[in-house]
Amino acid sequence: MSLSLVEVAGANFRTDEKSDALNTAFMGRLGMRKRYLPARLAISRSLAISAPPEPLSDELEPGKAIKGDTLFGTGTALSVWISLITQRAGDPEFDVRRLIGLVGAHWQRGLVHLEKDWDQAGQDVAKFVKRLVEVAELPTSGGALRSIGGTGIGATFSSGQIDVPIGEIGEDVATKEKIVWSLNGKGGSPHSAIMGGVGSGKTRTAVAMLRSIREQASVPLLAFDFKGDLGTDASGGGYHIDELFGAQILEPPRAPIPLDVLSLSSNGEIDIAEAASRFRESFARLKGSRLGDRQRTALHEAASMALAHESPCELPHIRDALTNYYAEHEMKEDGAISTMQEICRFPLFKPSFSPAEFFGQSWIIKLPPNVAEDSRTMVVNLVLDALDQYLNSLVDADSSADGSRGLRILCMVDEAHQILGSKLPSLSNLIRMSRSKGGAIMLISQSPDDFSGEDDEFLSEMGLVAAFSTNAPPRNAARILGKGANLGALKTGECFVKRRGDQAKKVKAW
């Protein structure tokens, strides 16, 4: 089937009666005299969401109609609107009837999100406009427009609730009932922790779950691989993580991470000072840094100086500023200088992509044991910090009618015991604050003991905890899963699963 502009221009477009009333309300709020103006705004707001809208229910009363040439204009304007709508639908087979239904659905969904934006802006027109600019990822003061089409992390990549089976089988051992986890369901948490000893099948289970998520949403993946086999190990039912997500594999320092990892939201003094403090805290977690009070001050001042004067700012800039600070203050070179020189020996980062561009794609960052420990730690700390700062700076992710939250990114850490227990601020922030922003964190580790160094509430923020056979003391397993969770007695392919707000169940995962 095909569309002609003449047919579209003469067609009647409408949404439901309730949404039409909201359309009228926005005319008054924004001082618009024509019905098609808030309708265009609503359709545009919906088109900013990559997932298709839910069709209008046949039971809803229809609203007033607007002619196609009034709603969309004529000529080039009409062609652009139709191109955007059909492109989002992802189906070349289109006729006018289907277009009318799709426009009505976009119109309805867009008004729902405009109403949320209006409330979150405190019903202030200036703040409302600013919020729409942020949603559209337009520059607020000069600069180039970001890419269009949902490729940045500002877009959401899901619509509706995502139910994830636990592994390849996902069956309650006692009842044979299928067990699923509502990853982004209303009131839940999208974060998960999967634990188990070597060969227990924890990674295999995680890969099966990631496959299910990917089948339901084209969300990008950021994976940290401390073993070095995620992109090549087909243990997850013959599926490779890189193939599942179309991920590019990075192996720093052989292949620097193409991220402007020290990117600033602004050049204001407060933003620079906060960024310098975050860098100092990441640096302080390196074993050889040995930061006393003078060293902490020196590193903060050096980072502030580099961030204020270099754009993009890179690690060698901070190294040079730190060396100059030591010389100016007649400080002897110490562990801080030598560690900074060591992590700059090879390029870990190359600022090719902004955070929006980088986190809108899928990546596997390989950090196997042969990579220097300080380099591995610095990479994880800085990338997670960049993700935390960027993701939590965005407006809340879109919600579907069922209350489920749209996804923007999955972040997976395999062999997470490599970083657990060190109280990384960025990891804690992502676990506690990224749900509303569309972030989902998956931690794969060896034992409940690995989480003992984190805050007591760390695991309570998880929407799903799954534990395979380990030698963890029963008290640690009981603290997480409840009494009776004997991990040492689990059979091959079995795990204890605890969903948030639910009792632990014994599940056959594979």
UniProtKB/TrEMBL annotation:
Domain Helicase HerA central: start-end pairs: 189-273
Domain of life: Bacteria
Record-linked CDD domains: TrwB_TraG_TraD_VirD4
Classification via InterPro entries: HerA_central, P-loop_NTPase, T4SS_component
A UniProt-annotated Pfam family: DUF87
UniProt-listed PANTHER family: SLR6007 PROTEIN, UNCHARACTERIZED PROTEIN YJGR-RELATED
Protein's recorded name: Helicase HerA central domain-containing protein
Protein source organism: Sulfitobacter delicatus
